[in-house]
TrEMBL record:
Residues in Methyltransferase type domain copies: 45-139
InterPro entries named in the record: Methyltransf_11, SAM-dependent_MTases_sf
Molecular functions per Gene Ontology: S-adenosylmethionine-dependent methyltransferase activity
Biological process according to GO: methylation
Keywords: Methyltransferase, Plasmid, Transferase
Name of the molecule in the record: Methyltransferase type 11
Signal peptide bounds: none
Species: Paraburkholderia phymatum (strain DSM 17167 / CIP 108236 / LMG 21445 / STM815)
Length: 269
């Protein structure tokens, strides 16, 4: 069953922290842009653009003749994206499931970097992507695999496993996919799959507070949001101990796996 995250928990501080710590999503997002082979002059839509760091790279790749739009439901993130854009790309508030005011067959490329697992109605979001893509246009997304959890999520699940009160605590995104479910979703909508693979990403964090701040900022406040402050503090202590097993030369080393998917809207359909 799909679940909607809250879009009411974001704050200026979280948006700023995301801009600082979201370099991790940016780095794997660059791999997604490589896989999508953006060309000069293309029109690109970044769905769930956040604070616009990757949108800026897309705009550099398509150049002055190209056109890039980022949309995101969180006004504070869009505000930061617009500060970054300085007119080189457009950004506005919007949701994947309803790409209002965008004409059919307008974009060459639509991508969602670390976004689709937050979307409750993924078929509707991908139908909208299909609608706004030109025939032959490319779709790409990265997402966390439901069946290969991040190190951090495994550690946290182990910490709360024997506490029935904590079983519903928000740890990862609510609607993760697998390679298989991503493939069947796309093919049910008519897309031709061109890439569907899991890549390994090694992150390093200075300390446990960086890990927690990164998780809160990346989840726009949803991470652990149902816990009271004393329970978060207690979990932080236990997490700090558990993460010592992950200490390495660059700090706390945590591995993530990400599914990289690209697909094409057929020329004739
Ligand atoms: C982890 S951030 C990724 C931001 C950006 N794509 C990046 O690579 O840095 C997830 C983003 O998904 C956005 N998001 C959540 N639900 C969404 C929806 N229904 N439609 C579009 N974006 C959504 C959030 O607002 C947030 O900015």
């Amino acid at each position: 069953m799909s679940t909607a995250p809250s879009l009411q928990l974001d704050s200026a501080a979280l948006a700023d922290e995301y801009d600082r710590l979201g370099i991790r999503q940016f780095n794997h997002g660059l791999q997604l842009l490589d896989a999508l082979s953006l060309h000069e002059g293309e029109r690109v839509l970044d769905v769930g653009c956040g604070t616009g760091r990757l949108t800026e790279s897309a705009a550099q790749r398509v150049g002055a003749q190209g056109d890039v739009l980022g949309i995101d439901p969180l006004p504070l993130r869009v505000e930061r994206a617009l500060q970054r854009a300085q007119g080189r790309f457009a950004a506005r508030v919007g949701r994947a499931e309803r790409l209002a005011d965008i004409d059919d067959a307008h974009f060459d490329v639509v991508y969602l970097n670390s976004v689709i697992h937050w979307i409750p109605d993924q078929p509707q979001a991908l139908r909208e992507a299909w609608r706004v893509l030109k025939p032959g246009g490319r779709l790409g997304f990265t997402t966390m695999p439901a069946d290969v959890p991040h190190d951090l999520h495994r550690v946290l699940h182990a910490l709360i496993a024997d506490d029935p009160q904590s079983q519903r605590v928000e740890i990862g995104a609510p609607n993760p996919l697998t390679r298989d479910s991503a493939a069947s979703l796309l093919s049910s909508l008519g897309f031709e799959l061109t890439l569907n693979e899991i890549r390994t990403i090694d992150d390093a964090f200075d300390n446990v507070d960086d890990v927690l701040t990164f998780s809160r900022a990346s989840s726009f406040g949803n991470f652990l949001s149902s816990l009271e402050e004393p329970d978060v503090a207690q979990l932080r202590e236990r997490l700090a101990d558990a993460l010592e097993a992950h200490r390495g030369p660059r700090g706390l080393h945590l591995t993530r796996r990400m599914i990289f998917v690209t697909a094409r809207k057929p020329l004739a359909h």
